[in-house]
Amino acid sequence: MDAATAPRQNANNPWRNPWVIGWIALIVVVLLANVTMVSLAVITNPGLVVKDYYERGRAYAETRAAQARTRAEGWEVRLDLPQPIVRGVPVGLRVAAIDERGLPVNASRAQFFAYRPADANADFDLPMATEAPGVVGAEVIFPLPGIWDLIVQVESGGRVYDLARRISVRRD
Predict the structure, then answer these.
(1) Residue 77, by phi and psi: left (phi above 0), alpha (psi -120 to 50) or beta?
(2) How many CB atoms lie within 10 A of CB 126?
(3) Is the whole model's pTM more than 0.70, yes or no?
(4) CB neighbours of residue 70 within 10 Å
(5) DSSP for 100-155?
(6) pLDDT at residue 14 is higher than 90
(7) CA dist 91 → 51, 94, 124, 143, 166 (Å)
(8) Given this model, what pLDDT does residue 119 score?
(9) Picking from 3-7, 120-124, 167-171, which range would have the lowest pLDDT averaged per residue?
């Protein structure tokens, strides 16, 4: 091989061209970013779906405003959960609410929502009944062990308070 043909052979090798290397690097970076985003979406998906998602979405601004007013008015809401919580065993769930003056909040409506991040088919909700002034409760049976996200929604006089907790349910 002589000196005249050597540069020609290198020029014909596309892997030595910086433009080709740059484009391949760009494609690899984009693919890695996509794989990362898809992985994060699958791993962190809570699977929380409510039946009236459209109506709740439309009323989101009103709901947030009502919650802000409730917090500003000084409501204190406490969730009493016995420990440990075991799959298939009834649990007495109690929620006590007092207003800014320390008086019990008589709920016009109280609802309990249980969401299982690992299995949306196991999600359920129950109405809560008034047990005493300012106290609502429900008997809950968790059908599956694992992590559950609980939301208790208490409504009184047009004000709404949401209380959220994450719990762990044991096997047996």
Answers:
(1) beta
(2) 15
(3) no
(4) 23
(5) TTSPBP--SEEEEEEE-TT-GGG-EEEE-EEEETTEEEEEE--SS-EEEEEEEEEE
(6) no
(7) 25, 10, 15, 12, 15
(8) 78
(9) 3-7
Contact 98, 73 (CB under 8 A): no
Query: Taking phi first (over 0 means left), then psi (-120 to 50 degrees means alpha), and beta for anything else, what does residue 134 get?
Result: left
Closest CA to 110 of 66, 72, 156, 67: 156
Beta-bridge mates of residue 137: 94, 129
Neighbours of 150 (CB within 10 A): 18
Examine the pLDDT at 94 and tell me if it is beyond 70.
yes
Instruction: Please return the burial class of 50, using the count of CB atoms within 10 Å of its CB with bins 0-12, 13-18 and 19+.
Output: middle
Tokens representing 61 are: 């601004």
